[in-house]
Amino acid sequence: MRRADAEQPAQSGAEESAVTLEMVAREAGVSPSTVSRILNGTARVRDTKVRAVRAAIAKLQFMPNNAARTLAGGRSMSIGVVTQAIDSPFYGEALAAIEKGLLRSNYSALFVSGHWRESDERKCIDHLVSRRVDGIILVTSCLPDAELQRLSRTVPLILTGRQVEGERIQCLDADSTPGARLATDYLIGQGHKRIACIGGPVNHPDAEQRLDGYKAALSAARLAYAKQLVVAGDYSDAGGYAAMNRLLDTGAQFTAVFAANDQMAYGAMLALHRRGLVVPRDVSVVGFDDLPTSSFTIPPLTTVHRGIAEVGESAAEAMIELVEGRSPRVRLGGATLAVRESTRPLR
Amino acid sequence: MRRADAEQPAQSGAEESAVTLEMVAREAGVSPSTVSRILNGTARVRDTKVRAVRAAIAKLQFMPNNAARTLAGGRSMSIGVVTQAIDSPFYGEALAAIEKGLLRSNYSALFVSGHWRESDERKCIDHLVSRRVDGIILVTSCLPDAELQRLSRTVPLILTGRQVEGERIQCLDADSTPGARLATDYLIGQGHKRIACIGGPVNHPDAEQRLDGYKAALSAARLAYAKQLVVAGDYSDAGGYAAMNRLLDTGAQFTAVFAANDQMAYGAMLALHRRGLVVPRDVSVVGFDDLPTSSFTIPPLTTVHRGIAEVGESAAEAMIELVEGRSPRVRLGGATLAVRESTRPLR
DNA sequence: GTGGAATTTGAAACCGCTTTCAAATTAGCC
DNA sequence: GGCTAATTTGAAAGCGGTTTCAAATTCCAC
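^ inputs. structure came back:
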């Protein structure tokens, strides 16, 4: 082999030939095993050697090859994170939190998005599996329970937004029902009796919970559930806008709206604005999620706060516990209502 | 061989022992090299064997071990993507686009965020390098030119938002000056003469471009540049809110504002609203970036559209060209103005 | 049918690190 | 000091692929 060439510092457009652990070992006058042990802290090593190795590492600017580590060690030190749309503010916040939660450990995150499509999500997950991630965090999943259970035999799972049984599945209990209940109760407490609801996509577990909370609040207050006051959206601004327009077009009477997420609330508020209706004077609006932007809408949005960031961070921490073999114990705070300026007492 | 054992589906909480290429080879009655060749298309293989191997792969549900591939092949088939904050809507959109652009290839993205801090960004990049990414896309970077040039010797770079010379550095020319000029020109064309500006973080190349565009428009229209009409923000909603309050507190007179990004425009609009000023009746507001939400603010925001998504996708495609050894040729469309309802002619 | 070129194949080396196992060293104790 | 026990160390065998190189086939023209 042209080792002579290799000794030359790489110039030109060519890639610098990487420093290997073996080169470090040679430089420090020890065996590769010793270097590895120092790197991983897997065994005691005489102090003089530790120092020599550290010096060699610094001198050569050694950076362990992750692929080799993964292959030899059987662990990739990376966690797959599945979301549905990386560009939604909701997932953005969750991802940032997961990134933060993983930070203190040596694990790093691999983000992929399923776009609310089973096939896409499946492909993403295959991808993660072939990359041998040590665990997968699913921030909402479109796949059926059985499939997740099967997957959990290959790799441990953390799941938010849904409850699925399984030895190696840890669910962060994030039932949305109480949050939706809280929001609706608040409106009722403010004297509203005709409360519309812009729901999430039908057949989506989380969306159903939010609708259930709304219904529960109504029935607890002995208010009739009026089907014509409920319209489905798709969790997007545009969807909320369209939903509100449909609602308005039917001529239904209401003094308040509960939107199943903040983005739809934004859209709904714009639709109201376009019709000359002022929030909260004419209609009170409550959202769900408390996105960072919700403090800056006009008017600032009253919304259910559940600490997306907190959930994300907990998920990350739980995942670390899980892959390190401990059993995580997660307790999440409940939902609270961030009361801002999009609601008012009825009189 | 305990083939009998191997046939049992894996049970219990134990991880399923992964299927290896060698098992596929045995099952198909060929050598591992042949399987590899079929997998990668690196050589012709007799058709009967191809079929046998495909069948074996399907039967065993073989999924190549990515770490082994990376180690042996020297390519990780992954691209590092550096942003500053994964939870900002701007980066969210960019990341989604990059993900999309990479989709058709076999490369996948590794997202990391630098949080506008040099040290964080440096750490992220080291991380990517140790994971042997085949290329790095920097959607804005805080590091000095020289450091990027040094980095480019290790791995090819794609850089947006800044121009840095280098053999293996490809810059997507995304000079913000013309966009800012466009926005300010529009306000001037609408008859505004006293135009305030909420700038980005000082010392940030991109922010400076946006300020330059603003100044250029003023001077082209022979309008005086008034220092008291310019305040610095930090590209966040809260920053825009605070900046507008400072502006208002000084008692400066203005009929329009150019905010260096949409999020600051949101904050500014809220600050105006709180003081009883109506947009656009009392003050016209123009933003920059055209975030998806900007169509749904109240009022919908007039803003500079530069196709973040387009930039992201181009970056991804250029990166593929680059790592495949071709030389990318990217031409981006210029900035346009999305005229909505936050501006009005002065009279 | 035969020789030689072209095409397919498999054996084996290697990618860079971890880890086992046994040898070498050091420590502890009588 | 001598002997055993405890601690450090290095050699070598993988991890699961890719790739080189030469052997084995197949092809083709004569």
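The domain at 177-305 of chain B is CATH 3.40.50.2300 (Rossmann fold). Chain B has three domains: 3-64, 76-174+309-328, 177-305.
thumbs up if we can close this ticket
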